[in-house]
Design goal:
Elements: E1 3-4, H1 15-22, H2 35-48, E2 52-56, H3 59-70, E3 75-80, H4 84-87, H5 92-97, E4 100-104, H6 113-119, E5 129-136, H7 149-161, E6 165-170, H8 173-180, H9 184-188, E7 193-197, E8 208-212, H10 214-226, H11 235-247, H12 252-267, E9 272-275, E10 282-287, H13 293-301, E11 305-306, E12 308-311, E13 314-318, H14 325-336
Parallel strand pairs: 1-11, 3-4, 3-5, 5-6, 6-7
Antiparallel strand pairs: 2-8, 7-8, 9-10, 10-13, 12-13
The protein binds pyridoxal-5'-phosphate.
Pyridoxal-5'-phosphate binds next to α3.
Length: 338
């Protein structure tokens, strides 16, 4: 049996989720007639206290639609240097929005209000027009780190004072909410748009949602069509999303507990130079000169444990709902014996 820690995207739909999918009522969503998609969108919007939502095939698409809606070509976007919107969306900000990016060096993927303030260009024709700030919570490259909500509010203040839109890449917002005991509604009070993923820790096969005002989502619907993201009988996928929102959020505490259990074993190994604090479901550690990340990943693979070398000396393991306590015990043993 292979235990796959490469990402929380590797989960397969559970029997309950599959049953919900098969039973879904569907229609043509480009005509706005898919009852399951409509239900998912209003359900997610309601949870976050946002006016509206739009269902998309991926988190890349929801982020890119948001950036497109908030900017004009030539505008500048501020984000952390490790941000998914910049690093892992194929250069989409330049391609789709014709915008430039100002990267800030945050702490484990998290930037602070003072940095944002200093990064805003003056109103000078030489300079790009600063228009949007994007945060990522939890931060993927930050090892699943969570923002302190008081800092998010301070950044919002800077955005408000400088007429900047504020977008959240909440691919793993559920992990942050559970870990920090926050509510989704807190987030709608500060962000103009929020992207949430169903295909990461919530265990859906496909799907993300973009949340915002009715006006913004109207614009988003047009951009989604342009990007080729208008789906027809997508209700089968939306039904998985509804099931996930109803069943798979609270259990995230287990993933977080499992991550800490494995991290405790990793921390004691002599080949480990540094372990990022484990706040949610991601473990990232750095190796010393005794072994490279690809070599360690290979060693683990030989024992049916899959991890991911995210840098020549960094390994990432991600917990998710297809990894049981038993698998965590087995993995801990194997790592302990390395
Ligand atoms: C996975 C992820 C996304 C979206 O990825 P898709 O694979 O396009 O759904 C966005 N942001 C972060 C931080 C992610 O980890």
């Amino acid at each position: 049996m292979v235990i796959d820690f490469r990402s929380d995207t590797v989960t397969r739909p559970s029997p309950g989720m599959l049953e919900a999918m098969v039973r879904a009522k569907v229609g043509d969503d480009v005509f706005g007639e898919d009852p399951s998609i409509n239900e998912l969108e209003s359900m997610a919007a309601g949870m976050f206290g946002m006016e509206a939502a739009i269902f998309c095939p991926s988190g890349t698409m929801t982020n890119q639609i948001a950036i497109k809606c908030h900017t004009q070509p030539g505008d500048e976007v501020i984000c952390d240097e490790s941000a998914h919107v910049y690093q892992y969306e194929g250069g989409g900000i330049a391609i789709n929005s014709g915008a430039s990016v100002k990267l800030l060096r945050g702490d484990r993927g998290r930037i602070v209000a003072q940095q944002v303030k200093e990064a805003i260009n003056p109103d000078d024709p030489h300079r790009a027009h600063t228009r949007l700030v994007c945060l990522e919570n939890t931060s993927n490259r930050g090892g699943g780190s969570c923002y302190d909500f008081s800092e998010v509010k301070k950044i919002k203040q800077v955005c408000a004072e400088n007429n900047l839109s504020f977008h959240l890449d909440g691919a793993r917002i559920w992990n942050a909410l559970v870990a920090k005991k926050e509510t989704p509604k807190q987030y709608s009070e500060v962000f103009d748009s929020i992207s949430i993923c169903l295909s990461k820790s919530l265990g859906c096969p496909v799907g993300s949602l973009l949340l915002g005002t009715k006006d913004l989502m109207k614009k988003a619907r047009r951009v989604r069509k342009v990007f080729g993201g208008g789906m027809r009988q997508g209700g089968f996928l939306a039904a998985a999303g509804i099931y996930a929102l109803q069943n798979n959020i609270e259990r995230l505490v287990d993933d977080h507990k499992h991550a800490r259990q494995i991290a405790d074993v990793i921390a004691k190994k002599d080949f480990v130079k540094m372990l990022l604090p484990v706040e949610t479901n991601i473990i990232i550690f750095e190796l010393n000169e005794s072994i490279t990340a690809p070599a360690l990943v290979k060693k683990l693979k030989d024992q049916d444990i899959l991890g991911y070398a995210i840098a020549p000396n960094r390994v990432r393991l991600v917990l998710h709902l297809d990894i049981s306590q038993e698998m965590v015990m087995k993995t801990s043993q194997i790592i302990n014996n390395l």
